[in-house]
Amino acid sequence: MTDDVILMRQGHDPSPFGPERDVLFFDQPLLPERLAQVTTAQLWAPHDEKIARLPKVIGEMTNLISLTISGGSSEPSLVSDLQTGDLPESLEELRILDEYGRVVTWPDVQLPRLKTLFVSDVFRFNASAFPQLHSLSLKPDRAQTNLRQALRLPIDELNVLNVSLDESIFEIISDRPLRLLGLLSGTKLTSLEGIQALPALESLRLKNLRALSDISALRDLPNLTQLDIQYCRRIRGIGVLADLTSLERLTLVGCGDLGLSELKDVIDRIPRSTIGATT
Fold first, then answer.
1. Cα–Cα distance for residue pair 181/197, rounded to 1 Å
2. DSSP conformation class of 162
3. Looking at the domain that runs over 164-279, which CATH code has it been given?
4. Which CA distances in Å does 27 have to 55, 118, 231?
């Protein structure tokens, strides 16, 4: 018996999840003492039997810390129809995954202890719902309204899952003293000019930015200790690594021929580096 469980309806096949995770059938009676043991849960259903309403037992998991709503497992109503008490106040991490590119709208429900929130689709919400949030991953709407709403939160980590702006994105997010930033997917960002407005940045992740070429502005991040660049095949000026004297961890994967042979001494001085698929 573990504190990490899969929640599903009785009759569905639990075998894909392996023996290391317990399965609880939310449509069957469950003892309160068993529910109190659960700290991590994943809600799952097959695509042809999606869940329209959050199972009542989740609100009864008084020590639940982390909840994942699996991609393709839920109807849009599962989130939009949430009411106060449906989720336990103990919740600190929530992951809402989806496979259909829908808009996820958060209702007037507050999660007072939530620290980490990941939503794979466009997410509409009011910042007052998450007063203690520190890490947010979301896909912005067209007007960037939800991105600006995010900056009202006490976050120090932001992951933008679809960068639909050019360098103006740095001006928008400079309202928060971010320590960790991820820019993941997009076709408009061509350079990092403007990232100087985030001098507190310690970790930067760049992935699948198909137009990104100029990364020279990295030299203006004095506190950068972690840099992760993946599948950004147009980048140039990799020599900027020589100026990142505080760098402790470097990942370069799937970025083509960067000319790293000329920077061997620079890379060797970085305590942890992962270099792959650069040819």
1. 13
2. S
3. 3.80.10.10
4. 8, 26, 43
Closest CA relative to residue 54, chosen from 33, 80, 93, 91 = 80
CA atoms within 13 A on the CB side of 95: 15
CA distance 264 to 254: 18
Rg (CA), the chain: 21
Own/partner pairs for 13-22, CB < 8 Å, 24+ apart? 17/44
Place of tokens 């600006």: 148
Answer for the pair 218, 201: CB distance below 8 angstroms, yes or no. Answer: no
pLDDT tens digits for range 44-60:
999 889 999 999 999 99
d(CA 186, CA 134): 24
Q: What is the DSSP string of 230-277?
A: ES-TT-B-GGGGGG-TT--EEEEES-----GGGGHHHHHTSSEEEEE-
* Residue found under tokens 């009759």: 11
- Its pTM stands at 0.93
Ramachandran area for residue 13 (φ above 0: left; ψ -120 to 50: alpha; else beta): beta
Tokens 């709503």: give the residue. 69
pLDDT digits (tens, 9 = 90+) for 62-83: 999 999 999 889 988 999 999 9
Share of the chain above pLDDT 70, in %: 99
